[in-house]
Design brief:
The structure is a single chain. The chain is α+β, with helices and mostly antiparallel strands. Helix content is about 30%, strand content about 20%. The chain has 35 helices and 60 strands. A hairpin with a 5-residue loop joins strand 14 and strand 15.
């Protein structure tokens, strides 16, 4: 066996095998041995483009007002305006909108708990017309800019800062508007087979449905209200006679009445007026009686429906005949109004307005571009007759065609729609969701404006007098603050952040409800291929409803998800790439990405297995239209990070994808030796690293800043984030990975962020793993870990917690943050500064004071002495109580940051002057330091550089550096002075707010959850000294021992292959890329082991560290990538003595956050009952729970060392009694005099009652006994 390659240290102090600088390309990207066989046709798109493009398209911030397109915010405003008053004398027109600049930076907004937003202003024009003038002349025009609200701005990373918290708006998957045809499954057996329905679903407005019943009568239904004959709908559209309706749907032919066999049993297509009086309506069947009547009335010819149109077919004629309403348009409209508004008085005018508004008014009804597109696609096969996409209301033609298609479908031709098909489900991204919310606000505002217009004096009124923008602000605040799709960002690690932004949810307003969503909606559909990941979805109630966008997927203008394919022409693969939506893809046959191709791009095999809709036919090469771009396009980013995914069972891959998102950023993370090749892209797009904006040379590097002299002669300064807290309390820290003098290209990584290493995603550690049982400690997924991992800080992580305290203005006076706290020793105050706030760098433990605070006590009646003291010492001697912020139990660490926010104090001018002077002095010192440093550097350059040109160049850079630093200092100084002038924006009643950030280093310990990338999770059961671990023939102990039984049953064999290849790669000193579905084969893994001089089986002899003996059989060992998950035992261990109680039941609260107790439930009671432990049970259910008096007495008895009292009545009994009384039952507790009290006290009471003298003597005797008993015990203990 070859000796292992030495582990070199590289750049950032992280050890990894073969880490020489030659292992990186010009962009600083690590080189990996690539096992993929297929060429890279298409690069991965920007992974958070979904969020950015959607929101930037909505705001159109950078586009000039007159050049903005009619969608997003501009589109909504154009929809709502102009607003005309009820009288028609005032018109309010929208001119344009402008967006200002954010007041604070992203970081400042987070610190101050403010929203990162920009002011939105509308320019509106108010036109007043003179209604008395016959020509309605314009009286006057007033134009004005109105401030509307603060509209949240998206950060560079695709997130929003709302009240200081970083949030993500998740994209929603919902049913696409348009027309859909479905089969009714819950109807009873119908004589003509399946029953179909048609639905016209708009983006906004009333739903229109058509359905047959079991008697072949066609009904219509609006908004799921009562149904009516479908022909009434047609009559309301203006086709009021039977003739006209029949003409719409069927052909007719004129027949001579004399030809009896041609006429009898036919349907009339035209009304007939009989010569002898009366008429016959179209649609009626000509039976023998009617035929005789026609002959009698000397009718020569009749027009009948062409028999082939209706014979043996479901048709509309039975409905026409059954609908015997007086056939006029007006009656039909009135009939519809009655169905929609039963019980309301109806007039023709209101009914007409109501009907028109329902489907034909663009303000009330909107199909959206998507709805029109879907209707065109389904009902108008001939493109010439299709309506333009901006025709967004229903047309009569749409309704006829819907009915025609429904009849066609019922007669066995046409296709029903699959609602789970991605042609019928679309994505609403951020922009669209905010747009809808904005529309809601604008509609409310419009209502208010109309009311106001009728009340104002047109002579003096300005636009600001009639516009109230509060509804818009309220709608936006509600959306960003409380909407189900506006979520607190998952920031555990960069992958979690990225995946959250790419998430697709079927839940939320207008979406599904998890309790009612069926199996079909959650299931994998063939149209998900390349669009939505079939693997990454949560376990639990949300399974299948929340999922992730596939790696290469894009969302098109209509909101449908598209995936890329290479075009194939006559068996030759071209380089042209088309993005296809699911409904477009249905028309093509698509080959797999791994179909063999020769050098000329021709498909080698004559027949290939390809995809067509949901089938996998074997087709000839000529019939293939497209080919997959990459085998990875099927899965999401998170799943694409799992090497050897093709060898894992999907259920375990699902867990692997989800657990990578829970991995904690480690102090020293390592990129995986076995990767899939996309680690760099994921880390790059997650935007946690610092990237060079321009090419240049590194001038200066330290832990906090990097300065780069760029190619255009300017100095770029990058400030690094240090020990900041993430949303999940993990830490965000950036470390530079460049050296002074290093040349950088544009886009190169300058500094690593959390969970990245040399620009690659690094969620865990590469460790040596053995798959074998070890003394029963790794039973059932437990892990045995080498103590070395703990000593070397391999899995140590830093967690930053935030603690805050407010000083409020109370009724009794102001609270004060101070060091002067009553009844606290000097020792407890040793870490506090003069103002009573803990110093940065202090190490604190549970119970230590972080911020000293005193609160005024309630005024009690003062004694004369107190009054005297107060007269001498003033108000200082007033009663205050200690209300300091202390470190909670279970927390400890080092204070890394402190933030203090206070209101603008109404200070005297002298005090304000003094503060300003102090700020000026502080910053003058900084400026002096920078100037001294600059002068020293310039002197050094003059000494060391003989070449004047070179020296001048260097001096120029130094001056540039100093100038940038001075500008920075000036900016900070101005900000501080502004803050002093304005004060911080604090909630009402709060004078001062202090936040303390505490960093804790957590090493691995027993109970921590660890996992690999294949769903192989486990809990640490034992940390074993290095010398006791199993070791290899060369004496190296393994790092972790896993149970081999975890592999075969779970079918995640990828972990074994990863271990084999990882062992070979570690020994040879290279990194591997094995992409999903295109990675290293079993033969290649064996080849790698052979090349490294390792056994091909991947097994090695191991020796027991405890006794040095060889284990019986060889053991699979190898290098596996293991992560520490954010389920740390430290956060879960919890103990309670006496804590808070629930207000009503008076039982202890539950859970660690509430400092609660352990629930002793029904089953636990059974267990104690089984043992007959009556007294313990009684105690648990009373004094340890909700017997309020009993528990107080019990506490007292324990403290005073007395005998414990008898348990009393539990409070929950009183709650039950009150509940019953609330139901009107008179329940009272009555004491039965016949029941004997057999307790000691009861017997005594009885004795006293019977014989007062004896009772008294008895009592005295018992008192004596009680006095002497403790003394006897004391004597015994002394002996």
């Amino acid at each position: 066996m070859k000796t292992p390659v030495s582990r070199n240290e590289c750049g950032n102090g992280i050890y990894f095998p073969g880490g020489k600088m030659e292992d990186f390309d010009k962009l600083g990207k690590r080189k990996r041995k690539d096992f993929s066989k297929l060429p890279k046709i298409q690069e991965l798109p920007n992974l958070i483009e979904v969020q950015k493009t959607s929101y930037f398209g909505f705001l159109q911030k950078e586009i000039a007002p007159d050049k903005r397109k009619n969608f997003g915010l501009q589109g909504v405003l154009n929809e709502i305006f102009p607003i005309v008053s009820m009288k028609g004398n005032i018109t309010l027109e929208f001119v344009n909108y402008t967006l200002g600049q954010p007041k604070f930076s992203v970081t400042e907004c987070k610190e101050r708990e403010m929203s990162y937003s920009v002011p939105l202003k509308f320019t509106v024009r108010m036109i007043v017309t003179d209604l008395e003038n016959p020509s309605k002349k314009v009286k006057e025009i007033k134009e004005q800019e109105i401030y509307v609200c603060e509209i949240p701005l998206m950060t560079e990373n695709g997130t929003f800062i709302i009240n200081g918290a970083e949030r993500v708006i998740v994209s929603q998957l919902h049913r696409s508007p348009g027309v859909s045809f479905d089969e009714l499954e819950d109807k009873l057996f119908s004589p003509f087979g399946k029953i179909y329905t048609a639905k016209v679903v708009p983006y906004r407005g009333s739903w229109l449905e058509f359905e047959f019943d079991t008697n072949e009568i066609l009904y219509a239904r609006i908004d799921k209200k009562r149904k009516f004959f479908a022909t009434i709908m047609l009559r309301a559209l203006g086709y009021d006679t039977n003739e006209e309706i029949i003409k719409l749907f069927y052909n007719s032919v004129e027949v001579n009445v004399k030809e009896r066999e041609k006429v009898i049993n036919m349907k009339l297509a035209k009304n007939i007026v009989l010569s002898k009086g009366g008429s016959v309506l179209a649609g009626r069947t000509i039976d023998s009686d009617l035929y005789d009547s026609l002959v009698e009335n000397e009718v020569k010819k009749v027009e009948i429906v062409v028999p082939s149109d209706i014979e043996d077919k479901i048709n509309l004629i039975p409905t026409i005949v059954k609908d015997n309403v007086n056939p006029t348009k007006e009656d039909a409209i009135m009939e519809i109004y009655k169905k929609m508004r039963p019980g309301q008085p109806v007039t023709l005018e209101t009914a007409k307005v109501f009907f028109d508004n329902m489907f034909f008014n663009s303000r009330r009804y909107d199909l959206g571009k998507v709805g029109r597109y879907k209707i065109n696609k389904k009902l108008y096969p001939d493109k010439e007759k299709q309506f333009a996409l901006d025709v967004r209301v229903l047309k009569n033609e749409d309704i006829f065609r819907t009915l025609k298609y429904l009849l066609k479908l019922s007669n066995g031709s046409g296709e029903k729609d699959d609602i789970d098909h991605f042609g019928n489900r679309r994505v609403r991204a951020v922009g669209e969701l905010v747009e809808n919310q904005f529309r809601i606000g604008l509609v409310r505002m419009e209502r208010f404006i109309r009311e106001k217009m009728s009340m104002v004096d047109t002579e003096v009124a300005m636009p600001t007098d009639i516009v109230n923008t509060k509804p818009i602000f309220a709608a936006l605040r509600e959306f960003f603050g409380t909407n189900q799709l506006s979520q607190f960002m998952d920031q555990t690690n960069p992958l979690a952040e990225l995946t959250h932004k790419r998430r697709l949810s079927a839940l939320g307003p207008g979406g599904l409800d998890r309790d009612r969503a069926g199996f079909e909606v959650r299931d994998v559909h063939y149209t998900h291929y390349g669009r939505m990941c079939p693997i990454e979805t949560p376990e639990g109630p949300n399974i299948g409803l929340i999922s992730s966008l596939s790696a290469f997927a894009k969302i098109n203008d209509l909101g449908f998800i598209e995936t890329p394919y290479r075009e194939v022409k006559n068996g030759v693969v071209t380089d042209k790439i088309d993005f296809l939506a699911a409904d477009e893809e249905d028309a093509f046959t698509i080959a797999q990405a791994n179909a063999p191709i020769d050098e000329k791009g021709r498909l080698v095999e004559k027949m290939l297995v390809a995809r067509n809709k949901g089938d996998f036919p074997l087709v000839s090469v000529e019939k293939i239209d497209y080919m997959d771009v990459s085998p990875m396009q099927l899965v999401s980013i998170s799943t694409a990070l799992i090497p050897f995914l093709e060898h894992d069972d999907a259920n375990r891959a699902l867990m692997g994808s989800n657990m990578q998102r829970q991995s904690v950023p480690l102090v020293n993370s390592e990129a995986p030796i076995i990767g899939t090749g996309i680690e760099y892209k994921v880390a790059y797009d997650s935007e946690v690293m610092v990237i060079a904006k321009n090419a240049g040379v590194v001038e200066y590097v330290d832990a906090n800043r990097v300065e780069i002299y760029n190619d255009s002669g300017k100095l770029d300064v990058y400030t690094l984030i240090k020990y900041k807290r993430s949303n999940q309390d993990t830490y965000i820290n950036q470390r530079p990975i460049v050296r002074k003098g290093q040349k950088l290209a544009k886009g190169q990584v300058i500094a690593d962020g959390p969970c990245t290493e040399r620009g690659e995603l690094a969620l865990g550690q590469n460790v040596m793993v053995a798959l074998m049982p070890w003394r029963g400690y790794n039973f059932e997924d437990a892990m045995v870990v080498n103590e070395n991992l703990l000593k070397d800080d391999k899995f140590s992580s830093i967690h930053v917690e935030e603690f805050s305290i407010e000083a409020r203005d109370t009724k009794l006076g102001e609270e004060e943050i101070t060091r002067d706290i009553p009844n606290v020793s000097d020792e407890a105050l040793c870490n506090l500064d003069d103002s009573g706030i803990v110093r940065i760098g202090a190490e604190v433990n549970p119970g230590d004071i972080l911020v000293g605070k005193v609160t005024p006590k309630g005024e009690s009646e003062s004694t004369p002495e107190e009054k005297l003291l107060r007269a001498i010492f003033g108000e200082k001697a007033k009663d205050v109580k200690n209300a300091s912020l202390k470190v909670p139990p279970g927390a400890a660490g080092i204070v890394v940051d402190i933030k203090v926010f206070s209101r603008k104090e109404s200070a005297t001018k002298a005090k304000e002057k003094e503060i300003r002077k102090r700020v000026d002095n502080d910053y003058e010192k900084l400026i002096e330091e920078v100037n001294i440093e600059k002068d020293m550097e310039i002197n050094l350059i003059k000494k060391n550089f003989k070449d004047k040109r070179e020296a001048d160049e260097k001096i120029k850079i130094e001056k540039e550096k100093a100038k940038i630093r001075l500008e920075e200092i000036e900016y900070r100084k101005n900000r501080e002075i502004d803050n002093l002038a304005e004060g911080d924006n604090l909630p009402a009643g709060v004078i001062k707010l202090v936040k303390v950030y505490l960093a804790t280093k957590r090493k691995i310990e027993v109970g921590d959850k660890m996992a690999g990338r294949h769903g192989n999770k486990g809990v640490i059961a034992k940390i074993v000294p290095q010398e006791d671990m199993p070791y290899m023939p060369d004496g190296r102990p393994v790092d972790i021992v896993l149970n081999p039984l975890g592999v075969p049953g779970r079918m995640n064999v990828g972990q074994v292959l990863e271990a084999h290849l990882g062992w070979a790669a570690r020994v040879m000193g290279y990194y591997v890329a094995t992409p999903v579905f295109d990675g290293a084969t079993e033969l290649e893994v064996k080849g790698a082991l052979k090349e490294a001089g390792l056994p091909i089986s991947g097994k090695s002899v191991l020796y027991d560290g405890v006794n040095g003996e060889k284990f019986d059989s060889e053991v699979t060992v190898g290098n596996m990538y293991i992560m520490k998950l954010s389920h740390l035992v430290d956060d879960k261990v919890h103990a309670r003595s006496t804590g808070p109680y629930s207000l009503i039941t008076q039982q202890p609260l539950g859970g660690k956050a509430q400092f609660g107790g352990q629930r002793f439930g029904e089953m636990e009671v059974w267990a104690l009952e089984a043992y007959g432990a009556a007294n313990i049970l009684q105690e648990i259910l009373t004094v340890k729970s909700d017997d309020v008096n009993g528990r107080t007495k019990m506490y007292e008895a324990i403290v005073k060392g007395r005998n414990t009292p008898e348990p009393g009545l539990p409070e929950s009994f009183n709650v039950l009694v009150k509940e019953l009384q609330g139901l009107g039952l008179d329940v009272n507790l009555v004491k039965d005099p016949n029941i004997k009290d057999l307790s000691a006290k009861g017997i005594l009471r009885e004795l006293n009652a019977k014989e007062p003298e004896i009772g008294l003597a008895e009592k005295t005797f018992i008192d004596e006994v009680e006095k002497t008993e403790p003394k006897k015990k004391e004597k015994k203990s002394k002996k």
